[in-house]
Every structure is written in structure tokens, then in C-alpha cells.
Design a protein that fits this description.
The chain contains ten helices and 13 strands. With 332 residues, it is α/β, with parallel strands linked by helices.
Length: 332
Amino acid sequence: MENEVKIIVKWSGKEYHIIDLMENDTVSILKDRIHKETGVRPDRQKLLNLKFKGKAAQDDDAIGKLGIKPGFKLMLMGSREEDIAEASHAPEDMPDVINDLDIEEEEIEIEKAEIYLLKIQKRIQQYNIVELNPLREGKKLLVLDIDYTLFDHRSVAESGVELMRPYLHEFLTRAYKHYDIVIWSATSMRWINEKMKRLGVSNHPEYKIAFHLDCLAMISVCTPKYGIAHVKPLGIIWGKYKQFSAKNTIMFDDIRRNFIMNPQSGLRIRPFKRAHFNRDKDRELLKLSKYLELIAKVNDFQTLNHQKWEEYKAKNSRSDRRSDEGNDEQNA
């Protein structure tokens, strides 16, 4: 007798429960059901983690042959027709809201609180880091968020590449010359791996990612003003890799509270949102590439104020140009 298969589809920040599927039903039938729930036509659906024998499942594959377990969550990428039409016109009066906390006055107190230092020590002992590529001697460390930093995870699109921040691969290639690179996202490791694969980051020939950290490496802190916040303490990395510290580590994140435990090591990047309208004009990663190259010469990052990175870049870029001009005159 056929068994019923239940699938949870994650799409556009929501979960859709697809029920009453039978093992003999095909992927094509599944897509029709997803269409009814989400409005995304079958021909626009990309089912990211639906596999059969290590390859993407085909429309005529039976659901029962895919080895789906109870509670299986399927990631859908695709756009509804009305969303595609809307994406060709920029919305009016859209405010640029940054999801963050006004935590500046509390940073120092929280950073040094013993209860949170003990949480970090527990993560150092219990959290398992899987190295994807070997760390290199003498390199500094760059820690990167994903959502709204490298990728617009809320806009709809037919492929992940459409939502990738402009100049991503050029940025990572330039950074890799001076920095070992770590990806840290407040999501599960499975989604991190999938996103990096879809963006072409995992196997890029010009750079390598050292390892990924997920939500399980984060800790919760209590701010007197705003309550509980989940944050990314760099001390977890520093406790496992003694060659790294506040002297040679920088973290990019669009949400400042994520580096509340290490405020001096964090640089809040402008969030990349509404990719369809902004991908032709967003040059944030290109500008930050230059900043990373400039500070790679600095022995101690604790002497820097990353909040003023644009001023530092402008000032030191002029100094580099004057130095180059002086060398040219001497060689003439």
C-alpha cells in the first residue's frame, strides 16, 4: 500500500506544507502542488535540494524513490508572474530600513561580561569546525555574513545569481591574497552550504573559503535596553585558532549587533536589498576590496576605526598615489 509523503517548502521567508502526496506521485505532481500553494509556476520552480542518485530530481521521478524523510524541508527558488512584472518598476517611497539595535553605549559592558565569556568558552569546547580548505601562515582573517551582505535573500528571482551582490567574486579574489576567509551566517549549515554552492563560491578557482560557521556557533546576550539578541562572538574562532585575534581579524555584517561582543573588529556593511533595482549601481564590495588591501599593511587592527573606513580609504589612497608619483619621478 502506498505511503503518504509530507514535504515542507521554504520560499520567500515562509514555509508551505505540501500534504496528500503519495510515493508514486512524480516530481511534476509535486510542482503542481507547489504552484497551488505559492503561485510559482512549475516551469519557474528550482527545487534546490531535491536529489535522486546524487543529481537533481527530474519531473518524471517518483517521490517515493527520492529517500525523503518525515519533516523534509525543500528550498524553492522561483518567482510569481506578478512579482516579475512588479520587479520591472521601482516602488515609490520605499524607506531604507536597517534592522539593527542602538547598542553603542552597551558594547563595552557586554563584551567583557563574564557570563558571555563563559558561553564563548563553552562554544570553543563543543562547536566542531569543519575546515574546507587549509589556513595559510601569515594571513589575516576576514569573517563574512551572507544575507544582505553578499546576497539579497528576500527578493524573488529565478536563480541565486540574480540576487548575488555585484563584484562578489572579484571582492573575494582580491581579499584572498591577504586574508583567510570565513563565512558566518545566522542560518543552518545546510543552507549555508547550499547558498555558497549556488553562488559559485564553494569551488571558485581564484579563492578558497577556510570554513563555515552557522547559527549554532552564535550565543545569546541580554542587553539592558533591548532584551535578548543572538550574536557572533569572534572569540570562538580566536579560541580555536591562536594565530588570529583582534589584531588581525575583521568582520563584515549588515547588522551591527552581530558583532556586539567584538565591536572594534566589526564593520557594518550597507545592506544589499532589492537586488533587481540596485545590482547595477551597488559598488560596496568593490570599495571595500580597496579598504581591505590598505589595512592588510597594518600590524594591529585595534588601531583602526572601521566605522570610518571610507575616510581611511580616501586618505590612504591619496597617499599611495603621491608615493607612486614620487617613485616615478625618481626613476625618470
